[in-house]
Predict the 3D structure of the following.
Amino acid sequence: MADPAGRGPALLAVAHGTRDPAGPAVIGSLLDRVRALRPGLRVAEAYGELARPSLEEAAAGLAGGPVVVVPLLLARGYHALIDIPDRAARLLPGAVTSRPLGPDPLLADVLADRLGARTRIPPRRPDAVVLGAAGSADPAGAADVRAAAQLLARRLRRPVTCGFVAEGGPALGDAVARLRRRGAGRVVVAPYLLAPGRFLDRARACGADAVAAPIGSHDAAARLVLRRYDEARSRVGEPACAR
């Protein structure tokens, strides 16, 4: 499907959504970075639930042109593999859905930056690091989080465990307590979360000595959004698929 403006398909970025107004504010700032990196690309914002514009509302403004849907999600799971692709296919025939953002070394770079700003990791070597993720009932999602922890460990050159605040195990609070029992100097959490919301609130209540900021608006995260867009854009016009 050709783009009459010659600028490529529109990018429809779909975040999970939260009732916390800070969440959409961070997503909006991230997408402003995407626009700055790719001037002329049409970038639309949407949410799967709990915030507006909804996926349906955003899609109505894109009907009639080619679209690449990028789930602003960090791992595979129901929303990335089924919910968003199926809704997008119904609303935007010919659109394609990219794979989720994570795991990816660019996210490890962002997490390291957030840890450095909040907790002075890695200079304080006795500290223990936990990757705090939302979690998923899908085993593929849990595997993606473990892969993300390995990427962060490689980036920091130190062990990184993982814990979950919603589904899956171990629970983040249990992971923190286990490291304390093993004699960690401090236990610090790198939230594997894109933006503020109830999952970040839960991470902050896990009993860690410090919790870094979420991934949020960062140039590396913006580059990753465009990477997923570029990976998927060659499939515009084919059946939508996130895998």
Q: What stands out?
A: Confidence is low (pLDDT under 50) at residues 1-6, 239-243. The radius of gyration is 18 Å.
